[in-house]
Amino acid sequence: MAYAPFDLSGKVALVTGGNRGIGLGMAEALAQAGAEVAIWGRDAKRNDEAVAQLSKYGKSRGYAVDVALEQSVDDAFAATLRDFGRVDTVIANAGIGAAAPSFSEMPTETYRKVLSVNLDGVFFTLRAACRHIVERAKNGDPGGSLVGLASLAAIEGQARGQHYAATKGAVVSMMKAIAVEHARYGVRANAVLPGWIATDMTEFAQQSPVFAEKVITRVPSRRWGKPEDFGGIAVYLASDASSYHSGDLFVIDGGYAIF
Ligand code: NDP
């Protein structure tokens, strides 16, 4: 028999950037564990394809949202609540990367673009989530799990990616601050820090023999991470098994950071 707290029946999870990559890996595991799953992404066609995949397990819907836009997030959160009635878990996963030639040559526009999605987007999403969860708690129904996707860049930095690293460091700090303020409502908040994961975001590196030789050989697990490697942490954090686990950083990188 499966460990009962990992059964997510009756819970609703929202995954931003859930139409592909790590977000879809998480969304699929959540759906398999019994959660109803809402996904957000800008591309409606990709959302539809992911929802078709997730609907094999239960109720799922997609919403065309740009998390960098405050109104888009607030409207989508309201629509998600209308369709599902509640939200228990929010995984703020949507993010972009954009390498610059060097820090000195990093265009301000690129810096602001990365901040708008990776930082503003997480802020807008989790603020909307907290408004809902706090109101629900005040009406006698406490509890919830908030997750921010950071990166190893949050603790190790990233050459030519100072903008990206800064947003991920900020996500870690934001999750801790949310955790402290919202524990009284039964809410926990944690950050997930992926290492090198084979998704569209890292396509450039996956094509590079130099990268394969210099970086992937340094991953103790000796392989790229896969979106499905994030299913377990998603289910754990959405489940009652993690109800006393808050303010933490989960590094999922095949051991890269310690090698
Ligand atoms: P992908 O590029 O594969 O997917 C990104 C997802 O985010 C897509 O679903 C995309 O959907 C969505 N998205 C992007 N911009 C927006 C936006 N403005 N509004 C709404 N949705 C958006 O990325 P990964 O799966 O690789 O990355 C997921 C998260 O993990 C990111 O936060 C990333 O920084 C982090 N991460 C990834 C690592 C890796 O090696 N892959 C390493 C460390 C951290 P759409 O295009 O339809 O909007």
Walk me through what this model shows:
The structure is a single chain. The chain is α/β, with parallel strands linked by helices and 259 residues long. It has one domain (4-253): 3-Layer(aba) Sandwich (Rossmann fold), CATH 3.40.50.720. The protein has nine helices and seven strands, in the order βαβαβαβαβααβαααβ. The chain has helices at residues 21-32, 44-54, 70-84, 108-138, 153-156, 162-182, 203-206, 209-214, 231-238; strands at 12-16, 36-41, 60-64, 89-92, 144-149, 187-194, 249-252. Strands 3-2-1-4-5-6-7 form a seven-stranded parallel β-sheet, with helices on both faces. α3 packs parallel to α4 and α4 packs parallel to α6 (162-182). The longest helix is centred in the middle third of the chain and has 31 residues, at 108-138. It starts with 11 loop residues before the first strand and ends in a 7-residue tail after the last strand. Bound molecules: NADPH dihydro-nicotinamide-adenine-dinucleotide phosphate. Residues 16-17, 19-23, 40-43, 46, 65-68, 93-96, 117, 121, 149, 151, 194, 196-197, 199-202 line the site of NADPH dihydro-nicotinamide-adenine-dinucleotide phosphate (NDP).
Short overview:
This protein has 259 residues and is an alpha/beta fold. The protein is 43% helix and 15% strand.
